[in-house]
Amino acid sequence: MTAIRTDDLRKSYGDVAALAGLSLSIDSGELYGLLGPNGAGKTTAMEVLTGQIVADSGSATVLGVDPEIDPLGVRERVGILPEKESPPSFSTPREYFQFVGAVRGMADDAVDARTETWADRLSFTEKLDTLSTDLSRGQQQKTMIAGAFLHEPEVVFIDEPLANLDPIVQERVKRFLRRYREAGNTVVVSTHNVEVAAELCSRVGIVNAGELVAEVEPAELGADETLLDAFVENVDAGEEWERDE
């Protein structure tokens, strides 16, 4: 079943084309990576798909819903973790989760239980009642990750999920994302980190200049092939690329 589809999606800001005909299809149960250099259009694509901005032309659906026609309908069913987003400075993580739960229509006991689960999973139980303004950037990132998954959505969009996290927590997040996908949910990860995409994603769409230029399944690469090779070949084809042997 197709969870996400875009056809010839275009979005410009003045003379700059952020999306220049992006077409892709993501199935339910995929952990799909949008991999590209800075400015490739990854974040813009995610903003269109989550109904935060409207494309100039083309079409898109998420779980069968058009985000331009029904942006609230899409956002009710997905989780969103934008890059460099922080919880409200005047709230604690626990208060933020209570707010998320209220917006999502969750029962109080479910919010409480999932708050404890996520705090234990990401090792910030002792920070649940600390004002966000007093948290480290890593602790704020943990709060935002937990908030995106708190209502257990069918589809989650994450921009640079491992930013600011220590290596142990990074491994816990990666393990959770794999289990979440195995349960039949869909996760879209936007990143410019080739190693993260290669290790984490079941399929990777390489985006450059607002277009999908290649798709790669890391698990299917041969012994002498790497995602980095494919990335360089499709993004920086004008430069000679030699891999160290």
From TrEMBL:
Residues 4-234 form the ABC transporter domain. It comes from Halolamina pelagica. Keywords: ATP-binding, Nucleotide-binding, Transport. This is ABC-2 type transport system ATP-binding protein. PANTHER family: ABC TRANSPORTER ATP-BINDING PROTEIN (PTHR42711), ABC TRANSPORTER ATP-BINDING PROTEIN NATA (PTHR42711:SF5). The keyword Signal does not apply. CDD domains: ABC_DR_subfamily_A. Transmembrane segments: none annotated. InterPro entries: AAA+_ATPase, ABC_transporter-like_ATP-bd, ABC_transporter_ATP-binding, P-loop_NTPase. Pfam families: ABC_tran (PF00005). One of its GO terms (molecular function) is ATP hydrolysis activity.
